[in-house]
Amino acid sequence: MTKSGETLQQAASESVKGRSLWQDAGRRLVKNRAAVVSAVILGLLVLLVIFGPMLSPHDYYTQDYDAIWQPPTLSDGHLLGTDSIGRDLFVRTLAGGRISLMIGLVATLVSLIIGVAYGAIAGYFGGKVDTVMMRLVDILYAMPFLFFVILLMVFFGRQIFLIFIAIGAINWLDMARIVRGQTLSLKNKEFVEAARMAGASSASVIRRHIVPNLLGVVAVYVTLTIPQVILFESFLSFLGLGVQEPATSWGSLVKEGADEMSRAPWLLVYPALALAVTLFCFNFIGDGLRDALDPKDR
Amino acid sequence: MIGYAVRRLLGAIPTLFILLTLAFALIRTAPGGPFDLEKQLPPEIEANLQAKYHLDEPLYQQYGRYLWDVARFDFGPSFQYRDLTVNQLIADGFPVSLRLGAFSLLFALMFGVPAGLMAAFRQNRPTDYGLMTLAMLGISIPNFVLAPLLILLMAVYNDWLPAGGLGSPLHYVIPVIALGTAMMAYVARLTRGAMIEVLRSNYVRTARAKGLPTRVILFRHALPAALTPVVSFMGPAAAGIITGSVVIETIFGIPGLGRFFVQGALNRDYTLVMGVVLFYGMLIIVFNLLVDLLYAWLDPRVAYK
């Protein structure tokens, strides 16, 4: 469970085989049927999003003038039909999924790095450093960021790069708070004291002892942040402020579908389904992971 | 308690100040202006417009002027709706948004709390799993996906409800469901978790031991304690409603503040955008304060001095 715990366990494992926190959590997670099913579905979806477009004879931007407004069919390879200018919805949904999932992962990573570093530093040093750093977080919390992001997108153009920054910049706040709280309780533990007494510098104590012990909480939070980020990107794309044509994301596809829904409901239904299933799976996995790591309420 | 409230409101002033400054800086550094029209205006007219809205002054002077106006709750004239001030636009749009938000909140509580209680009473049984899976579904379907799907189902395929606008009470049904569902799901999950914890607590066991009827235990002793997390969720929920109403109002063509904001941003209506951002900032601060006060009233262990 901890660095020092591991060495203790190594010593103990010769007589009794110990179980780490992670093995314990792993067992509980595997027993959670909803989480396992979600993980399998999500895994399949990711594979489909990566390799699916190669299996289809169509690509996401070519217009097939012989098949405009075509409902889903098996006959000519337009599995989920086509849109108003004859683009294949199946491939577009997968291409949109690539962008949505990529934004979800990258923006979460950005907020993860900033949040963990910020929170660990504030919590570890405490005192004035902590007060100033957390006061800044409090102020940023009160900002209606959605509005800033909308303004950013309107005024500075709709670049994917900006979306990453904007979303990452919002999400690190929660991460920093959670990490700081954990760090505060960790830093007075004996193994941290021991490391400090052995002459380890602050940087190496944070890196080698504090951060590894935060992984559980952070893992839960990351799985719950990814769907939030995907949702947020879709929201921006839905308002027409996210990914731009001919590239697409699930949000833009839902928007296109919503505009044409009385004429071509499949354009709305399939992208909406892909988005909802993905969010559903991520949320279930995150929930399962939390219950597995912190089983007190089960 | 009044002292606490006053101090909280005073403490919000620096936050609002930073908010104003950030928004001002962002808007003014952006390329493009409110009078960039398709056809070029004659220079003298443009100069007149600039002068009228004080855009010809140096930036710091404009900033100072704006700050002074806002301090007196005057958000200035709208650039796009020439005859109206931002205050008038907010006064027009806010009641609409407020009504939509309040109905959604009510909807979420009315269905979320009973669902959470039911799941807690039947913990780890099919009812519980069913309700919690539904709740997860509610959290996972974004409002901008739910809204068009509901329109498709209830207004396009069946002629049950009107799809857009705000003519009658019936017009509110789909937007309220779309906006309130995710919140309802959160409320259900929170209520369930808190109720499970409360039902295991010592004072509930005591109540049971002295032979109180189950109905009294549940509704008089357990329920108020189980609702405190729901109350503190109302703060983030209000922020969520505001965010959500931007997209819901756009989809349904509802003339509320959220739609004003999006249009204002697209039209570079500087004052309107700033006004709405600041107004929402103040709204969230006041609402969070009310939630905290309500929380202290419900939970006597919490005392604000």
Write a compact overview of the structure shown.
The complex is a heterodimer of chains A (298) and B (305). By secondary structure, chain A is mainly α.
Overview of the molecule:
The complex is a heterodimer of chains A (298) and B (305). With 298 residues, chain A is mainly α. Helices cover 73% and strands 0% of the residues of chain A. By secondary structure, chain B is mainly alpha-helical. Helices cover 75% and strands 0% of the residues of chain B. Chain B contains 11 helices and no strands. The model of chain B has no long low-confidence stretch (mean pLDDT 83). Classes of the chains: A mainly alpha (298), B mainly alpha (305).
List the helices and strands and how they pair.
The complex is a heterodimer of chains A (298) and B (305).
Chain A lengths: L2 H10 L8 H11 L1 H23 L33 H37 L1 H15 L3 H12 L3 H27 L3 H8 L4 H37 L11 H10 L6 H28 L5
Helix pairs in contact in A: 2-11, 3-4, 3-11, 4-5, 4-7, 4-9, 4-10, 4-11, 6-7, 7-9, 8-9, 9-10, 9-11, 10-11
Chain B lengths: L1 H28 L13 H10 L6 H13 L14 H36 L4 H15 L2 H15 L15 H27 L2 H8 L4 H39 L4 H10 L3 H29 L7
Notable characteristics:
heterodimer; A: about 300 residues; mainly alpha; 11 helices; B: about 300 residues; MetI-like fold; about 0% strand; flat
